[in-house]
Amino acid sequence: MLLAHLIQAGYYGHPSGFFYGMSAGTMGSWILIIVIGIVGWIVQARLQSVFAKYARVPFPGGLTGAEVAEKMLRDNGIRNVKVTHVAGHLTDHFNPQTMTVNLSDSVYASRSVAAAAVAAHECGHAVQHARGYAPLELRSQLVPIVNFSARAATFVLIAGMILLATTDNAWVCWIGVGLIAVSALFSIVTLPVEYNASERALAWLESSRTMQGAELAQAREALTWAARTYLVAALSAIATVLYYAMLILGRGNNRD
Q1: Residue 105 falls inside a structural domain
Q2: Rounded CA separation 122/129 (Å)
Q3: Residue 52 domain boundaries
Q4: pLDDT tens profile 187-240
Q5: Does a structural domain hold residue 204?
C-alpha cells in the first residue's frame, strides 16, 4: 500500500523523486530495510531501558548473577560447565567450545532481578547443549560457514555488480546473494535457540522458587525484549537478501 502511494505521488519514475531509477521491488525492499532499522533501534532502546530499570531491583534471594547461574547448572545436573566473568555490558554468552557461561560486568556480581534473568538465560543455552537441542546444534554447525560467507559476501557482490554492468552476466551476483542468505538462515535458526533458552530459564526460576510473583514477571519482560532483538535481526537479514535479489532482477528487467 505504501509503495502504491509513493508511485501515485510521483516519488517513483520522476527525475526529482527520491526513488528515481529504482524498480518497484527494489524500492519496496529499500523501504522495508529502513522500517526494520527503525524498529530495531526502538527495540534495542527499550531493551536497554528495561534492563537498566530491573538492574536497580534487588533480587529477593540475594544471589549474584554468577550464583544464580551456578545454582541452575547444578539443578539441571550439569557439572562440566564453568561460570566465568567477561568484560563489557550485556556481552553474556554460553561458549560450547570452552564449556563456559560467560557473564558480563553488569550481571556477574550484580544482585538484581535483571542479572538473575540474564544469567538463567545463558544457562538455558548450557541446558540446550547438554540435552542435544537440535536448533542449537544446527546453529553451531553453521558458525564456520557463516564466518566465511560474511567475509566473502561483500567482495563477491562488488565483483558481481562490475561483471553485471560490463557483460550482463548476473551469476556472480547471485553467488553473493547466496552468501548473504547464509547469514539470514543463521539468524532464523537463532530465533528458536534464543526463545527456548528464555523459556527454560523462566521455567527453572519458577519451579525452583528462585523467583516468584512480580520479580518473575519482571524477568519475563526483560527476556522478552532481549528475544525481540533477535527477531528484528532475522527480519533485517531477510530484507537484505530481498533487496539485493530485487536489485539484480531490476537491472535485468531494465535491460529488457
Answers
A1: no
A2: 11
A3: 2-57+132-255
A4: 999 999 999 999 999 999 999 999 989 999 999 999 999 999 999 999 989 988
A5: yes
Q: Is residue 99 part of a domain?
A: no
Region 127-149: what's the mean pLDDT? 95
Q: How does DSSP assign 133-192, residue by residue?
A: -HHHHHHHHHHHHHHHHHHHHHHHHHHHHHHHHHH---HHHHHHHHHHHHHHHHHHHHHH
Spatial separation of the C-alpha atoms in residues 55 and 103, rounded to whole Å: 14
**pTM for the full predicted model:** 0.81
Tell me how far apart the alpha carbons of residues 93 and 32 are, in angstroms, rounded to a whole number.
30
Exposed / middle / buried, residue 98 (Cβ in 10 Å: 0-12, 13-18, 19+): exposed
Give the CA diameter of the chain: 69
11 occurs within a structural domain: yes
Q: How many structural domains is the chain composed of? A: 1
Catalytic residue IDs = 122
Lowest mean pLDDT among 13-22, 87-96, 237-246: 13-22
Pairwise CA distance, residues 24 & 4, whole Å: 9
**Side chain identity at 9, as an amino acid letter?**
A
